[in-house]
Amino acid sequence: MTAEREPFRIPIGPQHPSLKEPGHFEFSVDGEIVTQASLRLGYVHRGIEKGAEQRSWVQALYLLERVCGICSHVHATAYCLGVEKLAGVEAPPRAQAIRSLVAELERIHSHLLWLGVAAHEAGFDMLFMHSWRDRETVMNLLEGITGNRVNYSANLLGGVKCDIDQRLADAIRAGLDYLEERTQHYLDVVLNDALFLRRTRGIGVMSREDAERLGVVGPTARASGVARDVRVDAPYAAYRTLPVQIVTEMAGDLQARFIVRVRELFETYRLIRTLLDTLPEGELTVRIPRRIPPGEAISRVEAPRGELFYYLKSNGSDQPERIKIRTPTLPNFASVLVLTVGRQLADVPMILAGIDPCFSCNDRMVAIHDTGEGRDRRWTWEQLRQHGIEVYR
Amino acid sequence: MSTLNALITLVVFPGGLAILLTGMIYEWVDRKLVARLQNRMGPRWYQPLADTVKLLAKEEVLPNGVHAQMFYALPVIALAGALTATLYVPVFGLRPAYSFNGDLIVTVYLLSVLTLCMGLAGANTLNRYALIGATRTLTQLFSYEAPFLLALLGPALVAGSWQIGEIADYAERHWLILTQPVGFLVAIIGLMGKLELPPFDAPEAETEIVAGALTEYSGRGLALFRLGKGVELVIGLTLVAAFYLGGVANPLLFFAKTLLLLAGMAAMQTLLTRLRIDQTVGLWWRYGALLVLAQYLAVIVWQGVMA
Amino acid sequence: MLKAAARLLQRWTQATVTPEPERLDVTLDAADLVPAVAALQEARWGYLAAITGVDLGPEAGEIELLYHFCAGAAVVTLRVRTPRNQAFVPSICDSVPSASFYERELMEMLGVTVANTPNTDRLFLPDDWPQEVYPLRKDFRLEDAPLPGSDT
Q1: First vs last C-alpha separation in chain B
Q2: Is A73:A237 a contact under the CB 8 Å cutoff?
Q3: Is C7 exposed, middle or buried (CB count within 10 Å of its CB: 0-12, 13-18, 19+)?
């Protein structure tokens, strides 16, 4: 044994069953109590911010959509809105409505996914399996609309590329009816399951003051009574004509985060139905110049996990000068490091899951390497592209 | 002849191979039921056997910094303890192979050997997850052991014997689940704690500490531990069924009653959320132990009044 | 909201721009950053949304840092410039603890020295990433990056 006073460190990550993506947390524990927490990211860093600077405005859209596999649509939306702002054009109303519609469907998908993961962290696999089964419904709907289950590519600069016809609208309504019934059941579990409450009620409490001080966003903030939602604060796309009701809870504990997300699902169902009923007629796209006029734009949208912040800078060419992405998980991570200190080790995965972390979102570099022949090679984008063409010819 | 008989009893039936196979079948039933309740397909019937064969065939990795003899010996001792316990229990609806006065105490002790070995196995390695897992395993052992023992002593008290065979005979004539419901509940929940099944799986909570005490085990050692658990599942179910559910006089009754209990356990596994280790300890000492003790006293008083 | 922010920041303001209706860009001296941020925080004006570092290129010789604060629809951006070869800003972690992540990112990605920031460990880049190679600078070349896994 080494020095006796050395704290006992538990690494969680980079590879750990409770993290679905790689990140490295290190917790010092005294018995079962956490005394210190630190974070190291970058295991899925892909240098997307840098990569976007080397592509055209249109190519960057598809790159940015791949920041995150779960909330890909909001990234594309934030980027498109920002570029449209810079170019001084506005997408047609129908396109705006479809953007919001897909965003809300994505929110359902993300919240149900989170519900399952969080339940699994608590050792409640029943809820995990059931919520993921129901998530298939919304995945199928998204596939019906856009042709993809994830990375939908619904957005274009200046509009959207998929339309909603009567058949799709009916399918969505039917899917929502089913999901609404199931969500009612989940709300019941979250509110009333006695043993589940023992793992959620009063755990990881974040006061309103802390939430404001740490700058947390999204459902994590709303569960602490901070009514912060970009859809309401700074409406964009179809939300400008579609009021959103913010769901907040005052307790600030894990249970509140569960309740907020599940209640938000009901609001989302209402929004989707309204969007379908009031879908404006018209074009899906407007023309947008290839070269974007110089300038800076800030674009904020409400991702399922909270505020997504984009800063775009154009130098007047056909390539972006700088794109900064601030995903909702980053400010929320700061809260985890603060919240876990002094808690039980067993609560750590729950607190971690409570903010709905998304590591890919935070880590953004193409370091493509090929170790196939026992030597490392670095490929430029052009070489890689050429390679891809040759392989699949 | 008697040597051959004893050998068969030990190695083939009802001890040894037969109980190992039954353990695997019961493990499969448990997994399949849990899966179906969770809306999954679940494994095929030979999955536990395939797992065991695969693990036995694999290289056993000796991690750095462990006491090698202990590392290899612990799984063997654990399985041996569980197999020995089989001999004193009326498995398959037969009379216990061996019996003496006080074998109940020995059986309960033998059943704890497995848990103790797992705790030691975790503490033996340098792995942090295993160390935390070992701490939790042993903490849990101390919390359920006393209530579980008391729950098994309740029937012994009314039967007036410490011998499993005699208690089982008495229980065949009296459905003790009706007169001692608390004892039954504590026994079945204690069994789940013993086997580290959800919601008492904090010692091997994969989302916190990977595989708990057994994180560093692979290959043969892991296979033996798993077999030991399967055996313990069968023995535990047999004991509870024999003591509380009107006995297991013939094989048909044995399978019917133990599988019924197993189904109940599967339902509880799916319905309940994992308890934190402090919550587990609190549950056992605040409710489990006190309730079963109260019932125990009530039985004693009742017997005094009747006598 | 924006007027309140403009008033709070008046003492340190060198220039202001309103590029969009709900936005206010305030140019500051790097030395005034800490009191300006503290003033916003004490008045409980919004929250730090992000810190963007923009390399203006070798010709301009400067790095621009943008501190974005959001409150409802309003966005206030504090603009600070620092020379490229000696990039240096003070840390705002004293008044905004959650800025630590952004400051760590600035240090490794753009080579900006952040004075007095509590944690100087790398956040995103690997441990074997060479010193003095900053990927978000405009003159970064892929050849400067280490080969992944080359030392294993």
Answers
A1: 46
A2: no
A3: exposed
Domain ranges, residue B91: 55-306
pLDDT in tens, A202-215: 777 788 887 877 77
Specify the amino acid at residue B291: L
Q: Give one DSSP letter per residue of A153-171, joined into a string.
A: --EETTEES----HHHHHH
Looking at the complex, does the CB of residue B39 fall below 8 Å from at least one CB of chain A? yes
C57: CATH = 3.30.460.80
DSSP string covering C59-112, please? TTTEEEEEEEEEETTEEEEEEEEEESTT-EEE--TTT-GGGHHHHHHHHHHH--
In DSSP terms, A156 is beta-bridged to A159
* pLDDT by residue, tens only, chain B of 307 residues: 577 777 777 777 777 788 888 888 888 998 898 888 888 888 888 889 998 899 888 888 888 888 888 888 888 998 888 888 888 888 877 777 778 888 888 888 888 888 888 888 888 888 778 888 888 888 888 888 888 888 888 888 888 788 888 888 887 777 777 777 888 888 888 888 888 887 787 777 766 677 777 888 888 888 888 888 888 888 888 888 888 887 777 888 888 888 888 998 888 888 877 777 777 787 777 787 788 888 878 878 887 787 7
Six token digits for residue A60 = 């960057």
Of the candidates B300, B288, B306, B290, the residue with the CA atom closest to the CA atom of residue B158: B300
CA C23 remoteness from chain centre: 18
CA atoms within 13 A of residue B264's CA, in its CB half-sphere: 16
Chain C interface mutation, best of A298, A317, A335, A380, highest count of C Cβ atoms under 10 Å: A298
* Domains in chain A with CATH codes: 57-327 (1.10.645.10)
Q: Is B188 domain-assigned?
A: yes
B133 and chain A: CB distance < 8 Å anywhere?
no
pTM of the predicted model over 0.90: no
pLDDT digits (tens, 9 = 90+) for A131-171: 888 888 998 888 888 888 888 888 888 888 888 888 888 99
- Strands C23-28, C74-83: pairing is parallel
**Alpha-carbon span C12 to C27, nearest angstrom:** 9
> Is C37 part of a structural domain of the chain?
yes
Contacting residues of A for C55, CB less than 8 Å apart: 322
DSSP-based helix, strand, coil % in chain A, nearest 5: 50, 15, 35
* Residue B126 contacts A, CB cutoff 8 Å: no
Q: Is residue C146 part of a domain?
A: no
Of A47, A215, A338, the CB nearest to C47: A215
| C128: closest CA of chain A, how far (Å) | 13
Number of domains in chain B: 1
Three-state secondary structure call for residue A295: strand
Which of B112, B114, B123, B142 is closest to B281 using CA atoms?
B142
